[in-house]
Structures are given as C-alpha cells and as structure tokens.
Description:
The chain is an alpha+beta fold. 27% of the residues lie in helices and 31% in strands. The protein has two helices and ten strands. The chain has a five-stranded mixed beta sheet, with no helix packed on it. Strands 2, 3, 6, 7 and 8 form a five-stranded antiparallel beta sheet that branches. The chain is elongated. The two termini are 15 Å apart.
Amino acid sequence: MTRVLTKLCLLLSSLLLPASVVLADTGPKPSMEFQFNQDISGAPLTITSGVFYECDQPDCSDAAPIEEVGPQGFYCQAQRCSAVAYGFAPYHRIEIEFSDGQTRRSNVFETAGFDSRYTVSIRPDDLLVEAEFSLGIFPRTGTVLVVCTCGILGLVLVVGLAVFLARRSKKI
C-alpha cells in the first residue's frame, strides 16, 4: 500500500511541474493597461506606435521614455496599449501616433496601483488619460499564487489522510 501511495504522490507532483521553459525572472511586475475611446468624429483611428514617458516631477519636466529591458517596456496594438516595469516612476505621460498621421500627447497622470487600468480619450489635439477604479488588493499573479497554494495544501491533506487511514487499517 505504501508503494502505491508513493507512486501516486510522485505522479501527482509531476503534474504540478511546468511543461514549458521557465524563465528566472517570473515574479509579479507592476503593469498598466490603456483602453482607448475616440472622442472625435470621422473614421475610427488605430494606433500605429507609442512612447511611454516616466517622470519624477509632477509637471513631467524630466520625462524620459521607459527603458526596454527584459519584460519591461511599452507595447501597443490597434486599440490598446500596455506597460510593464520592474517599478514605475510616480508620474507618466504617453505619446501615441494614430492612423491619421497625427501624434497626440496625454496629460500627466499618476500610477494608480500595482495593476493599473486607464481609459484614454482620443481628442482632436491631445489625449486624456483617466485612471479606472480598482481595488488592487492582489496583483493578478498574487491571486494565482494564493489559489495554487490552497490547492497544494488540499492535496497534501488528502494524501496525509490516505496514509493515516492506510496505517490505521493495518493496525486493526
């Protein structure tokens, strides 16, 4: 019975191992998500490129583009952008080039949390960035970590109970 339980434990623990390549830098990182809404008439605009500036001064007079290192950077698709960093400065500004050939600059905005979400209004001459409300208690990875930890603890309890019952039945 002990051999069967040992093999069962090995089988179950192998299912918990990742099946893909694992990177050393896998800890949670602050992120920002930008959803764009068009406040101007005409053909729908799409994003062609963008720059994310970080600032230590409230007026962004010291603005510098985010350094692209490892996963850190600013990434845009047709209707949304996102930023990931090892740590963000307190203030930010974005500059986005659209399909109409015009580059629009945003207002200065602050980091809204670990996983920040923003709504960006595309206006005729500029962008208006507004933070969306979020509880931000756990980062996405933190929630996954809590669920995985509870699952592993549950599995350990079930295996421990099976071993206990197997040993108890031998004594009787």
